[in-house]
Amino acid sequence: MSEQASGGSAPPEDGWKTSGVRVIPSDSLDGANVAATPGMDRKAAVNFARVGAQKLWAGTVHIHPDAKTGAHHHGHLESVIYVVKGKARMRWGEKLEFTAEAGPGDFIYVPPYVPHQEINASADETLECVLMRSDTDAVAINLPDLEPAEKVETVKWIDPTHPDA
User: Fold this and answer.
1) What span, in angstroms and rounded, lies between the C-alpha atoms of 127 and 121?
2) What residues does 141 pair with on adjacent strands?
3) End-to-end CA distance of the chain, in Å?
4) What letters, b where the CB count within 10 A reaches 16 and e where it falls short, cover 15-33?
5) How far is Cα 48 from Cα 84, in angstroms, rounded to an integer?
6) What is the pLDDT of residue 42?
7) How far apart are the C-alpha atoms of 165 and 152, rounded to whole Å?
8) By C-alpha distance, which of 109, 137, 130, 117 is closest to 37?
9) 49, 52, 56, 61 alpha-carbon torsion, rounded to 10°
10) Three-state SS across the chain?
11) How far, in Å, CA of 18 to CA of 2, rounded?
12) What is the pLDDT of residues 4-60, one digit of tens each?
């Protein structure tokens, strides 16, 4: 393989066999070494410890029917949630005063330091999502003293690249 094809350096001795692509089977995700948030089960698939990832964390999250997480944020990390199954209701803001819902196939973006709460909006179906973060650490800072607003405002996302769509 040319140096250009391998990113400018010589390929490893094993020709990328064990340091190249990794497939992480769903039954081998790690739930024991992941930061916990009440009401949520997270499991790590990709991180530094498991595959040597340098810039991201990926895993799954399940929220049981009618359950909700405690208020929390993820520090300096950006997060992306992809809804696989179920209906997610997100609340966010200094008093969790904003809300929006997402269903299968929808993506949710959570900027750094934004207080938020994930809610399973279904009474009879587990909410299943794939979660990605912008660093290898699974930072979850719980906010047990945050008093949620009683009145919430629904926020609809407007694509800034297609505002008239």
Assistant:
1) 8
2) 73
3) 46
4) eeeeeeeeeeeeeebbeee
5) 25
6) 85
7) 26
8) 117
9) -40
10) CCCCCCCCCCCCCCCCCCCCCCCCCHHHCECCCCCCECCEEEEEEECHHHHCCCCCEEEEEEECCCCECCCEECCCCCEEEEEEECCEEEEECCCCCEEEEECCCCEEEECCCCCEEEEECCCCCCEEEEEEECCCCCCCEECCCCCCCCCCEECCCCCCCCCCC
11) 19
12) 455 667 888 888 898 889 999 999 998 888 776 667 788 999 989 899 899 999 999
- The structure tokens listed for 72 are 């929390």
How many other CB atoms are found less than 10 A from the CB of residue 62?
18
**What whole-number distance in Å separates Cα of residue 165 and Cα of residue 146?**
36
Neighbouring residues of 65: CB distance < 8 A, sequence distance ≥ 6: 120, 122, 123, 124, 125, 126
Can you read off the two tokens belonging to residue 44? Answer: 């790590």
Q: 70, 115 in Cβ contact below 8 A?
A: no
Which candidate, 61, 54, 56, places its Cα nearest to that of 90?
61
What pLDDT, in 10s, does the model give residues 88-101? 999 999 999 999 99
Beta-carbon-side half-sphere exposure of residue 100 (alpha carbons within 13 Å): 13
For residue 72, how far is the Cα from the chain centroid?
13
